[in-house]
Design a protein that fits this description.
alpha+beta, 7-stranded mixed β-sheet
Length: 299
């Protein structure tokens, strides 16, 4: 997010996203999921998504299979933009991305631009106040095909990518923007690659403050932590605004689940209900692991 008017605080928020594994499994839905994630990344800040751009990366168009991927991805993006009312203002296509006869996964990178009336009211990622309530907006399903877990742990790519309801995605954005305007959120972050586990870890590392969480009774711990179901966000709500927040969700008929509270006295993520056990993850250790990745890879 950047401020474009010093007097009014008017700003723009921009995000680019794509999960090429989703697009490899289904290029039509993969392009729509990339669009939805970028749309969500903009709205979670409190900005209103308004326009789309793209960088569509594929193998050789002389290969019928690649050309089919390209057609399905473009059609998926066009259908999604039409349903969401977001015009495509520009973009580009990059073909012949391959080694020999082996093409890259179809990678339709989608950018979304949004506008916020005053950057001072943007919703940050980091929580900060003891006792604030942590919620998940949206529905978590058993959706792990194409996920970071399937890729990183099992080197597996198969099945179908997460389902996507664009109408629900638009409703989620409306809640995130309205919550920002009404000052209902002290922090928020979208759920995407790595699932809720990654979302919570990123928020905790950004804040440096602990949190106490519990796996919802209706979900097993594995699905709760690693599913990459679309149309979800983690929001942190001040306790004195809790009723207003729940009323907004009820007004929009949107699913919401409380999963925990911020713990100012802790420097760990505490997660209860993990197959009958409680686990503790030290935030400093998580940050060290995260920050040493590139130095380790490049020596």
């Amino acid at each position: 997010m950047i401020r474009v008017d010093e007097k009014t605080g008017l700003g723009v928020a921009v995000s680019t996203d794509c999960n090429a594994r989703f697009a490899a499994l289904d290029p039509y839905r993969g392009a729509q999921l990339a669009f939805a994630e970028s749309y969500r990344n903009v709205s979670v800040t409190g900005a209103i998504p308004l326009a789309v751009t793209n960088c569509l990366n594929f193998g050789s168009p002389e290969d019928p299979a690649v050309m089919w991927q390209f057609e399905r991805a473009v059609t998926g993006l066009a259908d999604a933009c039409l349903e969401m009312g977001t015009p495509v203002t520009g973009g580009n296509v990059s073909f012949y991305n391959q080694t020999g006869d082996v093409a890259i996964h179809p990678t339709p990178v989608i950018g979304v631009l949004g506008v916020i009336d005053n950057v001072e009211r943007r919703t940050p990622m980091a929580w900060a106040i003891d006792g604030e309530l942590v919620y998940v907006l949206g529905t978590t399903r058993d959706e792990l095909a194409g996920s970071e877990w399937a890729h990183a742990i099992h080197k597996h790519l198969g099945g179908f990518p997460p389902t996507l309801d664009l109408s629900a995605e638009k409703t989620l954005a409306e809640i995130l923007v309205a919550g920002s305007v009404q000052e209902l959120f002290s922090a928020a972050h979208d759920v995407s690659e790595g699932g809720i586990a990654q979302t919570i870890a990123e928020m905790a590392m950004r804040s440096g403050i602990g949190v106490r969480l519990e796996v919802p009774a209706e979900l097993d711990a594995f699905t709760f932590l690693w599913s990459e179901s679309a149309t979800r966000a983690v929001v942190v709500v001040p306790s004195n605004r809790n009723d207003d927040f729940l009323a907004l969700c009820d007004l929009k008929s949107f699913p919401v689940t409380k999963i925990g509270e911020v713990d100012l006295s802790s420097k760990s993520i505490e997660l209860a209900g993990v197959f009958g056990e409680t686990i503790l993850l030290d935030i400093a250790e998580l940050r060290a692991i995260s920050e040493e990745t590139l130095p380790r890879l490049f020596g």
